Amino acid sequence: xxxxxxxxxxxxxxxxxxxxxxxxxxxxxxxxxxxxxxxxxxxxxxxxxxxxxxxxxxxxxxxxxxxxxxxxxxxxxxxxxxxxxxxxxxxxxxxxxxxxxxxxxxxxxxxxxxxxxxxxxxxxxxxxxxxxxxxxxxxxxxxxxxxxxxxxxxxxxxxxxxxxxxxxxxxxxxxxxxxxxxxxxxxxxxxxxxxxxxxxxxxxxxxxxxxxxxxxxxxxxxxxxxxxxxxxxxxxxxxxxxxxxxxxxxxxxxxxxxxxxxxxxxxxxxxxxxxxxxxxxxxxxxxxxxxxxxxxxxxxxxxxxxxxxxxxxxxxxxxxxxxxxxxxxxxxxxxxxxxxxxxxxxxxxxxxxxxxxxxxx
Length: 361
Hints:
- By secondary structure, this protein is mainly β.
- The protein has a single domain (4-359), classed as Methylamine Dehydrogenase, Chain H (7 Propeller).
- It is 1% helix and 42% strand.
- It has one helix at residues 126-129, and strands spanning 4-11, 14-21, 24-27, 43-48, 56-60, 63-68, 76-81, 83-88, 96-100, 105-108, 116-117, 142-148, 156-161, 164-168, 176-177, 187-192, 200-204, 207-211, 219-220, 229-235, 243-248, 264-268, 276-278, 289-295, 303-308, 322-327, 335-336, 339-340, 352-359.
- The strands form seven sheets. It has a five-stranded mixed sheet, with no helix packed on it.
C-alpha cells in the first residue's frame, strides 16, 4: 500500500494543505472550492510532532500561533503575537517553543495549552540587544529559528534576523551571544552537526558558516558553492556527514532585477567541508528561492523542497508563485509535486515560505 502524506505549505497568502498517496496529491481545503487556511495571511512557520503527526503548529505573522490536533481539519489559536518560528522539543513533544517579532521567546510545557515568556532573553545586555534590528519598518529583529539539542534539551540556540546567534545551556535561564565571525549578523538558521556536541552550522544572508565551538567564532564553509545567500540547512537522518543547504544569489531587494535569485540546492557528503550543486530536474538557476527543506517521514533518502517567489523577511506585498519538489535519491534527481485541486484543476500555489511533511494516519 502506498504511503500517505500531508504537506503543510505556509505561503504568503495562507496555509495550503495537501494529501498525497503515491504520486497523487489533492488539496484538503475545507470548502467545496479550494481556499487556504488563514486566507490572505502570511504563514511564516510550521512545525509538527513526529510521534503524533496529526498535531501541527502554524505561526501566522501579526496574528498568533495556531494548533491542529486533527491533521489540519480544525485550527485553534493558542498564543497571540507576531509569530516567526515555532519548534517542538525533540525529546519531549509536550514542550513547544515560539519566537516572535520583536524578539521574545515563549515556551509551553503542556503541548501548547498554556505559555510563559522566557524573560531572561530580553534581559540580555544592551550591547547585545542593539543588534536586534531589521532594515525594514518597524525595524525590529525577530527570532528566525530555534534549535533544541536533540540529545540535551537544555541547550538552545536562537538565530536572530538581524542580530546574530545567542545560546543557553540551562533551558533559557541564562543566555550568551556567540556571534563572533559574522560580518553581517542576519542569521536564518543554526543547527548542530549530528555526532558532535560542539560543531554548528549557520545559514545567513551573507554566507554559510561553521563553528567548532561557536564561542571560538564562525568561519565560512562554502567550498564548491557559487551562491552567497543561504536559508535552510538539514542533515539526512542517520548520516551525520550528509547535509543539504538552500541558497540564492545576492540580496532579496534585487531579486526582481535581471538575473534574479538563482535559487539552488547544494549537498555535502563530508559534513560541510565541500559542496556541490544538486538537482537534475530542477532549473539550474531557479527563478524562486528555496526557503524550506523538509524531511520525508517515510524515506530517509528523500526530502521535499519548497520554493517561493517572495522575499521571506518581508510580510507584506503580493505573493508570487511557488512550487514543491521532491527527491528520493539523496538529491541526485528531483521532480515537481503536481498539486491538484479537488476536481480536475491543477494548482500553482502562491509563494511558499515554509513546509512541513507528515505521515497521514
